[in-house]
């Protein structure tokens, strides 16, 4: 497909979905409709982008030939692809391409591909290893899974969102890689929080400590993105603690049948679950520091 051929709808226009939609509109793609469970969010975005605020996923599919989905979890994905619902994407699935960007269980991506195929549609998982800023700037790192044909069909659209979309393999494979990326990121984030929290308890200058970390084996990407936020308690959400818990949980669910014990992932999952249980799941993942620093929790 050429750029002029795409009629693009979105299902799920939270922080990531909305900024991907803005990017595509800016790049000259024709946006047809957006849908979100939060109707006020969808209405405001539709007005901003000059497209329709759809009343259901089915309406988005009816108006589009390509639908980008960015929903929260496995259950939400199953709902928008429910086979016997007139409100689901599959109600107008024939001929459509569904590009699914959420971090969900690999098995759900595989099941959705099968359901879509029965309705004459193609799917591609396009897992995002970046954040809101990258979604808006078109510099997402996208890991894609599905058939080579679906990847080729989607590529002009993907290249508006990513500098170098990466084809990983068949359905479910990209989701596995993405879950591992987030598992390791979450472990690094929790470890950084413990290092800075102990430094604080020992009376060290945390700005100095961060500088030392940056020039030693303690350096990491999360040191660059999260350390100052942990120090200054600035947990504006780019990737939520709730999502960190979800993704670490998916990784653990993959480890069990593989016969592996992952104690660091398990401990990290427990920390993020604790944040959720404390009602702090919408803090950024850097909020895990609130469980460590003395006098904060």
Tell me the name of the CATH homologous superfamily of the largest domain: NAD(P)-binding Rossmann-like Domain
Order of helices and strands: EHEHEHEHEHEHEHEHHHHH
Category from helices, strands and their pairing: alpha/beta
**How would you characterize the largest beta sheet?**
8 strands, mixed
Number of domains: 2
Poorly predicted regions: none
**Rg calc:** 20 Å
Q: Based on CA inertia axes, which overall geometry fits?
A: globular
End-to-end Cα distance, whole Å, is 52 Å
Overview of the structural elements:
With 297 residues, the protein is α/β, with parallel strands linked by helices. It has twelve helices and eight strands. The chain folds into two domains: 3-171, NAD(P)-binding Rossmann-like Domain (Rossmann fold, 3-Layer(aba) Sandwich), CATH 3.40.50.720; 178-291, N-(1-d-carboxylethyl)-l-norvaline Dehydrogenase, domain 2. The protein has helices at 15-26, 39-49, 57-63, 74-80, 106-118, 132-137, 148-161, 173-201, 206-214, 221-232, 241-258, 263-277, and strands at residues 7-11, 30-35, 52-53, 66-69, 97-100, 122-128, 142-146, 166-169. α8 packs across α10, α8 crosses α11 and α8 (173-201) crosses α12 (263-277).
């Amino acid at each position: 497909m050429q750029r002029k051929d795409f009629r693009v709808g979105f299902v799920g226009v939270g922080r990531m979905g909305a900024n991907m939609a803005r990017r595509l509109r800016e790049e000259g793609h024709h946006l047809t409709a957006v849908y979100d469970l939060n109707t006020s969010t969808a209405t405001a975005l539709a007005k901003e982008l000059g497209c329709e605020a759809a009343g259901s996923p089915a309406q988005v599919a009816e108006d589009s030939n390509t639908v980008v989905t960015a929903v929260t979890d496995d259950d939400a994905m199953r709902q928008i692809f429910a086979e016997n619902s007139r409100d689901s994407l599959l109600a107008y699935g024939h001929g459509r391409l569904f590009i699914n960007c959420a971090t969900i269980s690999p098995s759900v991506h595989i099941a959705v591909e099968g359901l879509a195929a029965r309705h004459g549609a193609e799917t591609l998982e396009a897992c995002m290893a970046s954040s809101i800023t990258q979604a808006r700037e078109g510099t997402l790192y996208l890991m894609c899974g599905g058939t080579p044909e679906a990847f080729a069909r989607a590529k002009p659209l993907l290249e508006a969102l990513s500098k170098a979309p990466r084809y990983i393999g068949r359905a479910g494979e990209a989701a596995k890689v993405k879950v591992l990326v987030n598992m390791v990121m979450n472990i690094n984030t929790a470890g950084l929080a413990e290092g800075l929290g102990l430094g604080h308890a020992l009376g060290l200058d945390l700005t100095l400590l961060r500088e030392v970390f940056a020039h030693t084996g303690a350096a990491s990407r999360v040191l660059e993105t999260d350390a100052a936020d942990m120090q200054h308690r600035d947990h504006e959400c780019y990737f939520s603690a709730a999502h960190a818990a979800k993704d670490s949980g998916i990784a653990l669910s993959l480890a069990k049948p593989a016969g592996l014990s992952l104690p660091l992932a398990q401990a990290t999952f427990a920390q993020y679950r604790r944040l959720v249980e404390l009602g702090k799941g919408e803090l950024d993942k850097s909020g895990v520091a609130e469980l460590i620093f003395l006098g904060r929790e």
